[in-house]
Structures are given as structure tokens and as C-alpha cells.
Design goal:
single chain; about 230 residues; mainly alpha; Serine Threonine Protein Phosphatase 5, Tetratricopeptide repeat; 10 helices; extended; transmembrane helix; TPR repeat; TPR_rpt; transmembrane; TPR-like_helical_dom_sf
Length: about 230
């Protein structure tokens, strides 16, 4: 019985080789390679499609679960926004459960903002660093919050850098001058008065007529006096 099974397996192997050999002969070397390449493309394309489809469904579910957490955040119910209410997920659970989705990415922004309000500055940094957005004003706001966390931790150099990134990302009269004033203050706290003047020059040169323009001129004069003394 075992001998028969072995012979059958041998015959099946020969049949397979014969079929492959026949296909090679019919298609030719180039045609056979082309067929294999086509099969690989089909398999890879199908896998990518299924992966994207699964990710899209996951993100839709995450967006639906995040709705209540956003509501709590807007109502300043920060603990419920972070941890949920027993029926609805909070931002922390959304990050854990739906990692890799846009909802989890946005949840990092909310968690960073909440921890900043709660004066948990290192935790705020950890989450804000995990957030990124193609929406320029939102990303600029995230850089600004990151700068605020660094300021509270006494890291004035990184704070100034984040404020300057916020200003260049926003690149408008509504937000950039505010961020540039913060950058100047961070450099001043660091003790670098010359660097502190540069963001003020930016406001004076590029944001004339804004509410921050007069402040920039006043602080520049003050800093120049300190730098010259």
C-alpha cells in the first residue's frame, strides 16, 4: 500500500512537470516569463486592494466611534474624551484599537491637546509627535501646541523651532504673527537675543497691519537695547 502511494506521488510529480514543460514549450521562454509576471501582478494587486479595503472599513468604524469623544472634548469633559464613558470609546482606546487609521492619527492630536491642558507636558509631546496632517492650519496648530509643551518643560530652543514651523506652515496674517511672537519669546528665554529679533523682523516685514505688528516693533526696540547694553 505504501509502495503504491509512493508511485502515485511520483507519477503526479511527473504529470506536473510534464504540464509545466508543455506550457513552456507552447508559450516560449518570453511568453512563459510574461505569464508568471502577470500572475504575480494579479496577486500583489489583489492583496493591496484587500488591504486598502480593510483599512477603509477600519477607518470608517473608528470615525464613528470617535464622534462622542470629540463631543466630550468640545464640552471640555476631558476625562470622558480621553477614556470614554463606558459605552463609547475615548481617544486613548481609539489609538490602541484603530492604530494606523486617520481617526487614530487625529486622536493623537486631541490627546496631546488634553494632556497639555492637564499640564502633563511630556505625555502631550509624545502624542503630538505622532500626529501629522496635510491640512496646513491644523498642522500649524499642532506645531504650536508642541512648542507650548516644550516651553513648559524649559526646552526653549525646541519650542522656538516649533513656533517657527507653525508660522511658516500657516503662512497667513491670522496665525503666523502670533506664532512668531511666541518664537521670539522662546529665544529670549533661551538668552539668544539676536535670534529673538529675527521673528519680530519677519512680522514687521511680512505682516504689516496685523494686531501683532505694533508689538513686534516695540519688542524689537527693547531687545536691541538689551543686546547693545
Amino acid at each position: 500500500m505504501a509502495q503504491k502511494t509512493s508511485e502515485e506521488a511520483h507519477n503526479e510529480h511527473n504529470d506536473t512537470n510534464s504540464a509545466v514543460g508543455k506550457m513552456k514549450k507552447e508559450l516560449g521562454p518570453a511568453g512563459f516569463v510574461g505569464m508568471i509576471a502577470g500572475l504575480v501582478i494579479i496577486v500583489v494587486t489583489s492583496a493591496i486592494f484587500l488591504l486598502n479595503y480593510s483599512k477603509s472599513n477600519k477607518n470608517d468604524s473608528a470615525q464613528a466611534d470617535m464622534f462622542q469623544a470629540q463631543y466630550y472634548f468640545e464640552q471640555d469633559s476631558l476625562d470622558l474624551a480621553l477614556n470614554g464613558d463606558g459605552r463609547n470609546l475615548g481617544f486613548l482606546s481609539i489609538i490602541d484599537i484603530y492604530g494606523g487609521t486617520e481617526a487614530a492619527n487625529l486622536s493623537n492630536y486631541y490627546v496631546g491637546a488634553i494632556y497639555l491642558k492637564e499640564q502633563k507636558f511630556q505625555l502631550a509631546l509624545d502624542h503630538l509627535k505622532d500626529f501629522s496632517s496635510s491640512e496646513e492650519l491644523i498642522q500649524a496648530r499642532a506645531y504650536k501646541l508642541t512648542g507650548d509643551a516644550y516651553m513648559e518643560l524649559g526646552n526653549f530652543s525646541d519650542a522656538a523651532s516649533q513656533y517657527e514651523k507653525a508660522a511658516s506652515t500657516a503662512d497667513d496674517d491670522a496665525f503666523s504673527p502670533v506664532y512668531l511672537l511666541k518664537a521670539s519669546l522662546a529665544y529670549e528665554k533661551q538668552g539668544d537675543l539676536k535670534a529673538a529679533i529675527k521673528p519680530l523682523d519677519d512680522i514687521i516685514k511680512n505682516h504689516f497691519g496685523t494686531a501683532e505688528y505694533a508689538s513686534a516693533r516695540k519688542h524689537k526696540a527693547r531687545l536691541e537695547g538689551l543686546a547693545g547694553s
